[in-house]
Design brief:
Number of strands: 9
Distance between the termini: 49 Å
Number of helices: 11
CATH superfamily: Aldolase class I
CATH class: Alpha Beta
Mean pLDDT: 91
Low-confidence stretches: 132-136, 225-231
Order of helices and strands: EHHEHEHEHHEHEHEHEEHH
Helix content: 40-55%
CATH topology: TIM Barrel
Structural class: alpha/beta
Length: 278
């Protein structure tokens, strides 16, 4: 049975690093990930450099994968370099939306619906970010999630349930999968964790048991949400690939093929440490 590993390291993994990573290193990482057999890679974000300075070189980094956009200006920049696969994000938590975008959820949906007009829905991946337990998350009710799912159906064909602080339960994953099915949406999952990667792997198992066959991960476990202090790291691609292969799923990748990309990740981490020392 096939499972898609959706690599987010070049964007989600790098966006929160304090020291700027040279463009050529980013491009080298992306190239090695493609060579390893990954076919779905979120390469960069067309966010305002003032807010996400690590992504200031987005036009030069972009190759052929997907990109994150947060407004019309970002979308225009992405389209100008030929990007076709677009990722967007919002949350059932209004305070999260305001903190991220300066807009409520309904305002965001109106903006997205207007600016994405004409872009095929199968090229749009809709992230629903759930900052469980964060200072401004509040309680996320099934009704709030249902509204977010209905919004996602207006915008794209794939909905990505983003467990921003790695707190999702088996029951919640089952509910998300059911909601996606009821609305004829393809479901995917994105998992952060607070140092307990095995808990993230358990969440992957819950998702697989519910029929979810697309899972986000980040090479070397890089990343986390810059707007949620508790978000920790992303599930690492190498850990995900190892478990999928052990479980008998076909993801088209092996840990061995990921080694060149992991070498670049180690160099990035060493570069960060050296720059911080200076």
């Amino acid at each position: 049975m096939k499972v898609t590993v959706y690599e987010v390291g070049p964007r989600d993994g790098l966006q929160n690093l304090k020291q700027f990573i040279p463009t050529e290193i980013k491009k080298g990482l992306i190239n090695e990930l493609y060579k390893a057999g990954l076919t779905h890679i979120e390469e960069t974000s067309f966010a305002h450099p003032k807010y996400v300075p690590q992504m200031a070189d987005a036009e030069n980094v972009f190759n052929k994968g997907s990109v994150l956009v947060m407004n019309k200006r970002g979308l225009d920049r992405a389209l100008s370099v030929g990007a076709e696969k677009i990722n967007i994000v919002y949350s059932p938590c209004e305070e999260f939306n305001v903190k991220n975008f300066g807009k409520t959820r309904s305002e965001l949906i109106t903006m997205y619906y207007t600016m994405l007009n004409g872009i095929p829905k199968n090229n749009i991946r809709v992230y629903i970010s759930m900052a469980f337990g964060s200072p401004y998350s509040g309680v996320i009710t099934p009704k709030m999630m249902q509204l977010c799912i209905k919004d996602a159906k207006l915008l794209g064909e794939t909905v990505v349930f983003s467990d921003t602080v790695g707190a999702a339960t088996k029951e919640e994953v089952a509910l998300w999968a059911d909601m996606a099915k009821e609305n004829n949406l393809k479901a995917a999952i994105h998992i952060h964790h607070n140092g307990d990667e095995q808990k993230a792997i358990r969440t992957v198992r819950y998702a697989l048991l519910e029929g979810i066959r697309e899972i986000d991960s980040s090479i070397g476990g890089l990343g986390g949400c810059p707007f949620v202090q508790e978000s920790g790291a992303n599930l690492s691609t190498e850990t995900l690939v190892r478990h999928l292969n052990i479980w008998g799923f076909d993801c088209g990748i092996t840990e061995r093929k990921l080694q060149p990309a992991l070498k670049i990740v180690r160099e990035i981490k060493e570069l960060q440490e050296l720059m911080l020392v200076k």
